[in-house]
Amino acid sequence: MTEVYVSSSEELYAALAHAEAGQYILLESGTYDEIALWYGLGIDLDLSGVTIASADPLNPAVIHQFEAKGVSNLTLSNVLFDYVYQDGQPTYKRPFEFIDCTNISIEDVTFDGDIARNLSEDADGYATGIGLSVRGGTDISVADSVFTNFMIGASFGNATDVSVMGNDLSEMRVDGLTFTKMNDLLISGNVIHDFARNLLAGDHSDMIQFWTNGNTEPMTNIRILDNILDIGEGNATQGIFIGNEALDQGYGSEMFYQNLEISGNTLVNGHLNGLYIGATDGLIVRENTLINPDEDASLTALPRIRIDSQSTDVLIDSNIVEEIWGENGQSDWQVLDNVNPDDADVTQAEIVSSDTTVCRRLTLEEWQEADAAVALAEAAEAFIEESTRNQFTDAKLSDCAIACKEEAPFTQDPHQFINSLADDLCFL
User: Fold this and answer.
1) Is the Cβ–Cβ distance between 230 and 237 less than 8 Å?
2) What kind and span of H or E run contains 177?
3) CA 127 – CA 172 distance, rounded (Å)
4) How would you label 139-174 residue by residue, b for 16+ Cβ within 10 Å and e otherwise?
5) pLDDT exceeding 70 applies to what percent of the chain?
6) Which of 412, 405, 415 lies closest to 370, judged by CA?
7) Mind giving me the DSSP string for 363-425?
8) What is the residue extent of each domain of the chain?
9) How far apart are CA 97 and CA 103, in angstroms?
């Protein structure tokens, strides 16, 4: 099957009308002001596995507005979604939107936001718009993409079977990721960092937020795993905030979150609400690390785990955290092996010059188990040579290597280290 090259929205629509199953349609470098895929095009919106990508990933197609309604079986890859603010547009403008779509994959896409101007005192000079909006649909994947400089990085609602994995989000004014009316959701391996808030606007800023306000059915089967939430050089925010406002609207246990797991996350921030979890039935909170990097932080700035005491069937296990609130002797709660950061054997690698670099904290035992240590700098050099992930730069990786090498040796041989560096030890 031959690849099809297009250089305008009109050529793209024509190519989609005649595309074969699995067709690659490649966008020539340049600017595409608007792409809208909907029934008004008069084409079959079941795109049968078509991939739309940039012809030259090093000089990607620039798309200022994208909308898909009722589309299925489509992959978008290696394009630049570049929002250009227009005077008067509201802060909740959704320039890149998917409505009632099925089997959509968004991978290696950059979402680049903009700053509000001539709008309001609270908005002017701050990031605006919603980077990615998903409203309705099923089987949606967002992976290995970059979001920067929006009011909200990505917003998901009324969708099932969604995965958000391996993305980098930074410079948000209000929220990183928001969710409501979701079922079967995986949020894993993302790095969310360096918020740029308007501290005078009273924003309720969260790195990951859920809410049930106005919902009539519970959210079920949600996993939040192995994410890094880091204040970096930005403003303090709440970490993972899972509100259950439905209970304030007269609902009872029928609106508890069902089967919620929050495990393996690292939160470095300066807000009391590290993990805030509304009423849930079937909750696992395991092996999360919550710390404030400021040694002089006040008690109210030390992140906690806060869980609604009405929750049922709860396991809180092996977390590193200042305090856990909500447990008061409930018979179906297990609270096991959690430790205060002051009492934990944790060696913290220096957070180095790049504000997008976070090094994983390894326990003292992991350091001590290393035998014939592999110099991190050598492994980093090998990784640079083999890596094709263009978000890594030699300078950032070199800085990280120097900082971590001063701490202690790693436990892996060079080949294992190269394969795991990006996903386990260091995120750049």
Assistant:
1) no
2) strand 175-188
3) 7
4) bbbbbbbbbbbbbbbbbbbebbbbbbbbbbbbbbbb
5) 80
6) 412
7) EHHHHHT--SPBPHHHHHHHHHHH---TT--HHHHHHHHHHHHTT--BSS-HHHHHHHIIIII
8) 30-343, 346-427
9) 15
DSSP letters spanning 110-160: EEE-EE--SS-TTTTTSEESEEEEEEEEEEEEEES-EEES-SEEEEEEEEE
Cα separation, 106 vs 395, in Å, equals: 28
In the DSSP assignment, the letter for residue 199 is: T
Spatial neighbors of 86 by CB under 8 A, at least 6 apart, are: none
DSSP-derived 3-state class of residue 14: helix
Burial of 222 (0-12, 13-18, 19+ CB in 10 A): buried
Amino acid identity, position 332: D
Can you read off the two tokens belonging to residue 14? 């024509």
Overall residue count recorded for the chain in this entry = 428
- The stretches in the chain having pLDDT less than 70 are 1, 345-428
pLDDT in tens, 172-202: 999 999 999 999 999 999 999 999 999 999 8
Cβ within 8 Å of residue 275, ≥6 positions away: 239, 240, 262, 267, 285, 288, 290, 303, 304, 305, 306, 307
Superfamily of domain 30-343: Single-stranded right-handed beta-helix, Pectin lyase-like (2.160.20.10)
Taking the chain, what is the end-to-end CA distance rounded to the nearest angstrom? 37
Q: Which residues of 323-333 are buried (b: 16+ CB within 10 A; e: fewer)?
A: ebebeeeeeeb
Q: How far is CA 386 from CA 201, 202, 424, in A?
A: 45, 46, 17
User: What whole-number distance in Å separates Cα of residue 162 and Cα of residue 135?
Assistant: 12
Q: 72 near 103, Cβ under 8 Å? A: yes
Extract the tokens encoding 361.
Answer: 């904290």
CB 137 within 8 A of CB 100: yes
From CA 195, how far away is CA 426, in angstroms rounded?
20
Exposure of 21 by Cβ count < 10 A (0-12 exposed, 13-18 middle, 19+ buried)? exposed
CA distance 197 to 113: 14
* pTM, entire model: 0.82
| Amino acid letter, 58 | L
